[in-house]
Amino acid sequence: MTILGLGDFNVSLVFILLILSTLLCVIYGLVKWNEDGDKISGKEKQWDKEEKNIEETL
Amino acid sequence: MNILLLSVIVIIYLFIVGYLAWIAYRKTTTASDYLIAGRNANPFVMAVSYGATFISTSAIVGFGGAAAVFGMGILWLAFMNVLVGIFIAFVFFGKRTRTMGLNLNAHTFPELLGLRYQSRFLQGFSGLMILVAMPLYAAVVLMGGAQFIAQVLSIDYSTALFFFTIIIAIYVIMGGLKGVMYTDAFQGSVMFIGMLILLILTYVKLGGVMTAHTKLTAMTPLAVEIFGAKGHTGWTSFPALGSENWYNLVTSIILGVGIGVLAQPQLVVRFMTVKSNREMNRAVLVGGIFTLITIGVTYVVGPLTNVYFYEHPSFQNISFLAANKVVDNIIPLYISTAMPQWFTIIFMVTLLSAAMSTLSSQFHTMGTAAGRDVYEKWLGGKGSTIIITKMGILVTILISLLLAWGLPLFFEGGTAIIARGTAIFFGLCAASFLPMFVGGLYSKRINKHAALWGFMAGFLVSLFWLFFIHIKESQSLLVCKALFGVDSLAVGTMWTVVDPLVVALPVSILVTLVAGFLGKPLPKEHIDKCFTGIK
């Protein structure tokens, strides 16, 4: 069984899978668009402060 | 081609890149801005930057040419790139990487591994592996870009190489990862538009989708006549099971690159640049569409060039023979002879974007590996992280530049090294990093021993396979010939065409699992901290 004038089942199948996997990405992105919308740690803040001090000294 | 018009468009293009780099420079004030874009990247910018980094000139020209030889079976790689490289990578790896990276205050991929396993050595050695292997990958991408610029603008290769490197170096060193990602987003958009137009023009040129495919299928007897001995069954069907073409296509191209994408340091760091997992969800949508068009088009147009060249009165031959058996010349020859003048210029800018977006990320990753992972964290060097990283970027750019300048002298006319250099790096990263990366994200029992032993096993088996078994490399490297008098220890068997990844990754996984039973587990408090907020 082939589609779109292709030569064998294997390549016809991958054409379909390629479209389906892209649709999976699109649908997942749309469904989860506003989900999981969850904090710079104190250590990182301190690190950035030290960075600025070194930059200013130099 | 109108050189004046092309020059004007390239200058406008570089002006836009420069403007975006300047915005990034103004917004980069802290070390986390410089290393991970302040953990605040827009999902569109992150997804397009991820895709544009993954797709270099070699993916379009090198793999497009390979598609013209192998046929549409290579679309399995495009499918892997969308399903594994985007969906699985973002949903199952990306979210956990982002959360764990935040919990552990990690700023690079080696740092994430080092902190997860409480091992400075692991961070330093991972950084060192990137430092050893990545300059070769960067050099081959640099070569591809410089060769293409030299050809199009009719200038000397060394001059093109020098100016091309300087332009990218300036915006990477000044803007850090923000500079890389902002310019990537623009360059990725150019690539998306260029490839979409290429697909439409190709189908219009060949009489529509069905007609084009039917014509290509009708050329099957020609493919079998020319490549049949290697297992070719036509350009719209898959190679014969167990043939040389089948092993090359399945192990090196589909598995090597399709799985290798999961453990690329320059791609994994993108997951740590977004504010929350909501951004990751949105990036899946953008990344899926971007990958389908940029990669899918390359692998569809490549095989279809055979129809064009066969019907063209000046060629009347298949693509491989029309391009004088130089695979990397197939796509450029097709663009220059089949496409209208205006599109030739668009395609040139598309290729320039593909090269620059990949190189900028490579330079940044090598610089952070040298400065942050090796010098600052492993060797205990003191000083400003930003300045140390900038020095690291500068040194690794110089190494890549020297390699890109020297490699063509040793591999005469051998642009096939561009595709091989890419595949080698992808395979090496997957075999070395993937088991401990997946284990670190999903297992609370995996310990430092398992990570270290698995890493070393994957790395060493990959090197052994490259030097002594896989004939494409072992023949060029000459070590096997010098020691044993043969090009490969497996000469005469199919093992010579099996990619290192297919052997090294299972060995690495097995060693990681076995070594997990040795050594003591990591402290419970540390594990709890790692997995905070991970469902």
Care to describe what's here?
The complex is a heterodimer of chains A (58) and B (535). With 58 residues, chain A is mainly α. Chain A has a domain at 1-35. Helices cover 67% and strands 0% of the residues of chain A. The longest helix of chain A has 23 residues, at 9-31. The mean pLDDT of chain A is 74. Chain B is mostly helical and 535 residues long. Chain B has a single domain, classed as Up-down Bundle (Sodium/glucose cotransporter). Helices cover 78% and strands 0% of the residues of chain B. Chain B contains 23 helices and no strands. In chain B, helix 3 packs parallel to helix 13 and helix 8 (157-205) packs across helix 16. The termini of chain B are far apart. The model of chain B has no long low-confidence stretch (mean pLDDT 88). The chains are: A mainly alpha (58), B mainly alpha (535). Chains A and B meet through helix 1 and helix 2 of A and helix 5, helix 9, helix 13 and helix 17 of B.
Helix content of chain B: over 70%
- Describe the main β-sheet of chain B briefly: none
Helix/sheet category of chain A: mainly alpha
Order of helices and strands of chain B: HHHHHHHHHHHHHHHHHHHHHHH
This entry's quaternary arrangement is heterodimer
Q: What is the β-strand count of chain A? A: 0
If interface size is counted as residues with C-beta under 8 Å from the partner's C-beta, which chains form the largest one? A-B, 39 and 57 residues
Q: Would you kindly provide a brief summary of this structure?
A:
In chain A, 67% of the residues lie in helices and 0% in strands. By secondary structure, chain A is mainly alpha-helical. Chains A and B meet through α1 and α2 of A and α5, α9, α13 and α17 of B.
List the defining traits of the structure above:
heterodimer; A: 58 residues; mainly alpha; 2 helices; B: 535 residues; Sodium/glucose cotransporter; globular
